[in-house]
Amino acid sequence: MTTVIDGKNVAASVIQTVKSATAALEKSSGVTTGLAVVIVGDDPASHAYVGSKGRMAKECGFKSVQHTLPAETKQEDLAALVATLNADPSIHGILVQLPLPKPLDSEAIIQSILPEKDVDGLSVVNAGKLATGDLKTGLVSCTPAGAMVFVRRTHGEDLSGLNAVVIGRSNLFGKPMAQLLLNANATVTIAHSRTKNLAEVCRNADILVAAVGRPEMVRADWVKPGATVIDVGINRVAAPERGEGKTRLVGDVAFEEVSAVAGTITPVPGGVGPMTIAMLMANTLIAAHRAAGQTPPQF
Amino acid sequence: MTTVIDGKNVAASVIQTVKSATAALEKSSGVTTGLAVVIVGDDPASHAYVGSKGRMAKECGFKSVQHTLPAETKQEDLAALVATLNADPSIHGILVQLPLPKPLDSEAIIQSILPEKDVDGLSVVNAGKLATGDLKTGLVSCTPAGAMVFVRRTHGEDLSGLNAVVIGRSNLFGKPMAQLLLNANATVTIAHSRTKNLAEVCRNADILVAAVGRPEMVRADWVKPGATVIDVGINRVAAPERGEGKTRLVGDVAFEEVSAVAGTITPVPGGVGPMTIAMLMANTLIAAHRAAGQTPPQF
């Protein structure tokens, strides 16, 4: 019997933990967890993302601040805002919504966020901490952190003796995911577009994580029977069966046929997707606990 | 026919490149490459290492500075020295010889070295740069950088389609080595003490790198015929055949039997060992080129 992970459900339980811990932190130390979200320009999709992050932050009991800047904002003014937020003790997490309008240099802005407030986990210092296994002071980017929650709830904390294969080697997902799996004692293989015999490599995986952006690339015969399959791809494909010009979302895994082989699988949509924003809240809570000298909850 | 890599020979060719580029940099921009080595206390082995680094730096044409501090040096005085070296434009590389005598906090000292002068590649910023594939501004720790020179001279720059297996996941070697191999497009597996069926995992490797510290653990039947085997282990074992109480150095690979299977292999001693100090010189030269706004040579 295959278990289909309900990402919305897991995300809701993460949010529940964040809510309780936010209230407990406030009670024990008087610290209200604070998240600042910065958005530049008028991109509707970016505004929608930022809106839902703000709503979720309020739901968690955070102080939620949004800074909306015009598209023609200058680099130095954006940098000055980040510096102000870095110095503000009531703000524990800073998120600058990407992409920034041209010609702003987003890399310089991201790297100027204090690593301990970098709740997106994008700074080179947080990458270095993750790479060297320092999860006690580092912050991990939200999507791999969310995927690891699924892995832990399926296999526990210790993945000793399990083979994990990550397909995809992006800095945003594949590399940090591999480091998290390694840190949990899995034997980890990172496969990618240059890998030979990819299907064979994947068949070796007890935990298979796909993050390549190729619709339904992972087929049933790529999967070891009983394996845990985590699908990080979100691809929009034509769905003529729904009517002319209609589309639907699919992952990197051919869900229907792989479901017949896998032990545990995440759907798309409704799998890893809902976890990203939940882990953003978790990271902000973790940052607030550390700032207050308290031990954050485990997710 | 198995190729046995002569590490001394390769190291000498790296040093030759460093010498020429040091002279060329001085001629073109007036910049003399500068390396500062800091040693605290009287440990004879540490003094021997520092001595050979200083001699090699001079041989390369560097300005070579050694700071010898007493064992009872205070943390703040050592930190002040590092701050002075950070600010000194004639110094491009700073190396603090480890281990530091107790109770000095070596982690704080290492992290206080400017990342662009951290020629040992130990700072969290350099770990993050390597983890995110930024080799243009980062500095890579010397032993994995040296092992990669062997890999490049055997397989070229692009390892697409090759499977690499690294046994060992230390921050000093295993993890950075895996990242370098991945960056060169290999499909990379990181195996370690918790790996199940280690021999089977290793048999899959076109490039097998062992860094576990277990004498002659890798046997002939762990190795794919024709594979490149790089042995980073240095283990001292009893050698009664040389007389009572005598010892000898062996690697993590059973050299004699594996030589019969591998296509290319490094010996111990005389393989990776001599590369570490050569890559320290290379890193210092790279740092000096960057400080002068010039493109460093490739190694």
TrEMBL record, chains A, B:
InterPro entries from the UniProt entry: Aminoacid_DH-like_N_sf, NAD(P)-bd_dom_sf, THF_DH/CycHdrlase, THF_DH/CycHdrlase_cat_dom, THF_DH/CycHdrlase_CS, THF_DH/CycHdrlase_NAD-bd_dom
Residue ranges of domain Tetrahydrofolate dehydrogenase/cyclohydrolase NAD(P)-binding in the record: 141-290
Domain Tetrahydrofolate dehydrogenase/cyclohydrolase catalytic: residue ranges: 5-120
Reaction catalysed by this enzyme: (6R)-5,10-methylene-5,6,7,8-tetrahydrofolate + NADP(+) = (6R)-5,10-methenyltetrahydrofolate + NADPH; (6R)-5,10-methenyltetrahydrofolate + H2O = (6R)-10-formyltetrahydrofolate + H(+)
Superkingdom, natural source: Bacteria
UniProt: NADP(+) binding residues: 168-170, 234
Keywords: Amino-acid biosynthesis, Histidine biosynthesis, Hydrolase, Methionine biosynthesis, Multifunctional enzyme, NADP, One-carbon metabolism, Oxidoreductase, Purine biosynthesis
Pathway: One-carbon metabolism; tetrahydrofolate interconversion
Name of one Pfam family that matches: THF_DHG_CYH_C
Entry keyword annotation includes NADP: yes
Record PROSITE patterns: THF_DHG_CYH_2
UniProt key word Repeat: no
E.C. number(s) listed in UniProt: 1.5.1.5, 3.5.4.9
Oligomer status and interactors: Homodimer.
Sequence similarity: Belongs to the tetrahydrofolate dehydrogenase/cyclohydrolase family.
Functional note: Catalyzes the oxidation of 5,10-methylenetetrahydrofolate to 5,10-methenyltetrahydrofolate and then the hydrolysis of 5,10-methenyltetrahydrofolate to 10-formyltetrahydrofolate.
Name the UniProt record assigns to this protein: Bifunctional protein FolD
Organism listed in the record: Rhizobium aouanii
